Every structure is written in C-alpha cells, then in structure tokens.
Amino acid sequence: MSTMTTRFPPSPTGYLHIGGARTALFNYLLARHHGGRFVLRIEDTDKARSTQEMTNAILEGMEWLGLEFDEGPFFQSERTETYNQYIDKLLQSGQAYYCDRTPEQIDVMRAEAKAKGLKRLYDGHCRELDLGPGPDRVVRFKVPRPGKVVFNDMVKGTVAIDAEEIEDFVIRRADGSPIYQMAVVVDDATMGITHVLRGDDHLSNTPKQIMLFQALGFPVPEFGHVPMILGPDKKKMSKRHGAVSVMVYKEMGYLPEAMLNYLARLGWSHGDEEIFSKEDLVEKFSIDNLGNSPSVFDQEKLNWLNSHYIKTASLDRLAPLLAEYLELRGFSSLDPDYLKTVIPLLQPRAKTMVEMADQTEFFVTPSSELSFDPKAAAKFLTDDAKVHLAALLSRFEEAPSFAPDTLENIAKAYLEETGLKFKAIAQPIRVALSGKTVSPGLFETMEVLGRERSFTRIRRAIALTT
RNA sequence: GUCCCCAUCGUCUAGUUCGGUCCAGGACACCGGCCUUUCACGCCGAUAACAGGGGUUCAAAUCCCCUUGGGGACGCCA
Predict the structure, then answer these.
(1) pLDDT of residue A414 exceeding 70
(2) A239 catalytically annotated
(3) What is the predicted pLDDT for the residue at A274?
(4) What angle do CA A334, A336, A342 make, to 5 degrees?
(5) How does strand A96-99 pair with strand A5-8?
(6) Which site among A60, A262, A293, A343 is 20 to 30 Å from A461 CA-CA?
(7) Of A234, A239, A421, A423, catalytic
(8) Which among A8, A14, A384 has a CA at the least distance from the CA of A193?
(9) Does residue A20 carry a pLDDT above 70?
(10) Beta strands in A124-232 (DSSP E)
(11) Distance CA A11, CA A33 (A)
(12) Cα–Cα distance, A65 to A21 (Å, whole number)
C-alpha cells in the first residue's frame, strides 16, 4: 500500500477563495490524518489566463491559513513535454486521433444538435478518418464505446455514467499544448496521488479522467466529491460574498484559526463539537463525516468563531497583530506593552481585529489630539457635568493607587456625598476619556490610560466650549 | 434541453450505514429575561426543521418509488 497522497491543484486564474481554501484544507487534513503527503500543484496550462501574481496570491493564502504542503508547488506549464509524450502514446495505440474540425464548425454542429433536441456533444466526425498531424488539428480522446464508467466516490457512493454522455474530448490544442484533463491525469499518476478530493463541480470530469487513467494503464486513484459552498442566496458563490481571496477576510479582521475552524465545519462535522484547532482537525478528520449536500456560507457564524478566538488568544499573539491593523490606519511605533494592557479590555468586545483596532484608537491617540464626538459632548459635557468632573478630577489626583477598585471607591464616595446617581457622572467621564459614549469599563479604562492621560483628558473635557 | 448530484430548524449540522432509545439533539443568528456606568462578555429561557405524495413494515427522519425544489456539468477553461 503506497503512502496516502493528496493534492491541491489551483488554477492561477483567480485568487484562493473560500471554496478553494476548504478543498485545500480537506486535502491537507486527509493527508495529515493518515500520515500521508500533501502536494501543491499549480494548474497553469491555460497560458492566456494564468498569472504569476495569482500564483503568489494563492501561496500567500495557504500560508495565512497554515496549510503547509510537503511537495511542490509543481507547475504544469513546465511539464508540457511529459504530457505530450503520453498523448503521443495514446495516438500510437489508436486511443486518440487528430481532428480538423474548427471551433466554428463545432459550434455549428452543437447548435444544430441542440435545435434537433439532441445531445450537443461533439459528433465524432473525425473519429474514423485516420487523419494525420497537421496545422490547426487538435487531438481528441477516443472514448471507448459502447461503455460505462462506474466508480465508488468516497463521499457520494457509487456513481455511474454512460459513455454516450461523454464526447470525444480534446486532449491537445491545435497549438500543441495539452489540455487540463490530460495534464491532471498524467500528474496525478506520476506524482503518486492516491486520493483526489475536490469540489462537486468536478464530478462530471471524473469519468473522462478515469478513462484516461485506464487508457494509459495507470492505477486509478480514489475520488471524493465534496458538495459546493453556496452564497446566502443559495446560488454558486459570487464576488458579492465568498468568491474573493481569503486574504480579504484577513483584511476584514478575521483570524486564520477562526477561518480554518469555520471552513472545516462547512460540510464536515464531528458530533456536536464546534471548536476545533488545526491539531484537533488533523486528529478528528474523516471522510465519513463529510456531508453530502451543499452548504451556505454564513458570515455570522464566522463572526462568532472569530470572537471566540479573539477572546482566547494570548496577548503575545494579539499585540503584534493589532499593531499591524493599527499601522494600516496611521498609528506607527506603538508600544507593544501598552497594547497588551489595552487588549484584555477589548477581547470580549471585538468580533474582528478591525473592530479591535477601532476600539483601540482612543487609547493610542495622543491626548492632545483626541477629538470629542460633538453629539456626545453636547449631551454629556454640560456645565453641570463639568462641575462634577472637576470635583472628581481633584479626588482622582489624590488617589493612592490607580487600580479600578480604588478609583471606583473614590467615585462612590463622591456620589454618596452629593446624592448623585452613578449614571449622572458615568457618561461624562467616559466622553472625557474616550471622546465617545462607548468604551470599556470606566475605571479599567482609566487604569490603562494611566494618570497622565486620564487627567489631561478630563481637563480638556472641562475646558471644552460647547 | 441532456446527464449527474443533493434534500432535517433562517443558517451550519447530529441522527440515516445495522428502521424502534427522536412528538428529532447541538451550534450560529433572532426574540425575551438576568447582570450592568455605556457597549460588549457572561448566564438563563423561548420560537424554530425531518419538502410533498405514495409504498414496505407492528414501527420510517432513517428503506423503495414518484413529484417538487435546489445545485453542478455539458469548452481547442480549469
């Protein structure tokens, strides 16, 4: 029994999107779970649409998610000769043939077939013509007829397709370059791929590929087709929702561990469990637990997972990350130790790192530049409130310690003397400190800001003319 | 149109392999309440599904058939 080997074969004609990322994850997990190998192969046989930029983007996405591969990346564009050798083999053995029908002629043929209500498959015009090589001639695979391809899909069970449903498909273009189906089969065979786990959309390619494996005398790998991920409209994902680079999820403030966890649970489950680390997934992943109906991408659940991971992440992890997001909005050379005192106040409040960055802003904005939200100031920094702020300020200045408890006791003592309710002073203090009506707990905030910032800000609030 | 795949709460799903323990469990979201200095967190609670119809059976979410619905594929794209 050879080592289990899986692969992820993206085409560099687009970014690594949600669906691709999940496919990569499942293949990664399958290989890791069984102690096998995971191969990355870049399928760039379509020269016109493949770019280096996309290849880099895909690599970046996989790195972000932590999907390390054991071999590759291999590039199909560098293996043209190999593919052509196998195509020639097929030609020599009479399992493939040249065809001189032009794309235009084929189009006409398909249109006519459609008009007559027939299958719009290539009609096999050149199948028995025994044409030799020539300019503008493609090579087509001679689908064995009559015939039937039956295979046992790892997730869907037995799938059977009649050869009548499959046309003599092109395996080499007129320009001499090999086509996807050929490249995939040769690669999977020569790279020792034992298990092919991919999206549902490839199900109809499978019989073609199996025929190719057989014609070439290669062992046929195991196939598994995972249901697709749908958008909220239950249609195939569009740019509107997940069909963008997974890196935009990083930009939106998602943690890779949340993304990984979410992706794993889309179409896969392990009893009632919801939280899985990458290690958990490697340990628990099994094809048997894959679902077989399409699933809808739900950002709300991703949000929940993300806030979970934000709440449980270490300060050492979060501080540099937060600094990155803050830097994007112009805050540079921030003190990591200061951020580490801010973060605990924000962990239960931020669903994303972007939100955390939002909420961190007033902590890192220099007090002299802090602006007060006009509405908040008008409502809470009244003349009345300023009197109390001034009184409280002088008491806070005398505080023996700046611990939340101490501060709170000072405030309470003041309230008792004046007969005021906490609510009367809470928002004014908050607006003074943060410029806004929303912030973490007042006294924790003061502790983190420290004496100097706190006092400066309260003084500025008192001095503010509204 | 043809072929293939799929069908449990709004969403992700458990349960389907070996029908009974399921008047269907968990999670997210939503709603209500508690906590409370704002916003969150947290805690408690509620609403919510076996697409429909036929079978088989003492018994069906689980097996079979049909209908309906959804998805995918039909390229000298991958």
Answers:
(1) yes
(2) yes
(3) 95
(4) 95
(5) unpaired
(6) A343
(7) A239
(8) A8
(9) yes
(10) 138-141, 148-153, 157-162, 170-172, 195-199, 222-226, 229-230
(11) 26
(12) 8
Nearest DNA or RNA nucleotide to A271 (CA to C1'): B14
List % helix, strand, coil for chain A (3-state, nearest 5).
50, 10, 35
Strand B: which of residues 322-361 in chain A lie with Cβ below 7 A?
Answer: 348-349
Task: Decide if pLDDT at A242 tops 60.
Answer: no
| Rounded distance in angstroms from the CA atom of residue A341 to the C1' atom of nucleotide B33 | 33
Distance of A181 CA from B78 C1′ (whole Å): 9
Residue with tokens 């951020």: A339
Q: Which nucleotide is nearest to A265 (CA to C1')?
A: B12
pTM of the complete model: 0.93
Helices (H), A93-161: 103-115
Task: Tell me whether residue A350 is exposed, middle or buried, using C-beta atoms within 10 angstroms of its C-beta: 0 to 12, 13 to 18, 19 or more.
Answer: buried
Query: Among all chains, which residue has been given the structure tokens 């071999």?
Result: A71
ipTM of the complex: 0.93
Mean pLDDT over A105-131 rounds to 88
DSSP code at position A154: T
Distance in Å from B35's C1' to A285's CA comes to 39
Task: List the structure tokens of A243.
Answer: 């069909």
Q: What is the mean pLDDT of residues A282-305?
A: 93
Tokens of A36: 């096998």
Distance CA A464, CA A199 (A): 61
**Mean pLDDT for chain A?**
93
| Pairwise CA distance, residues A331 & A361, whole Å | 9
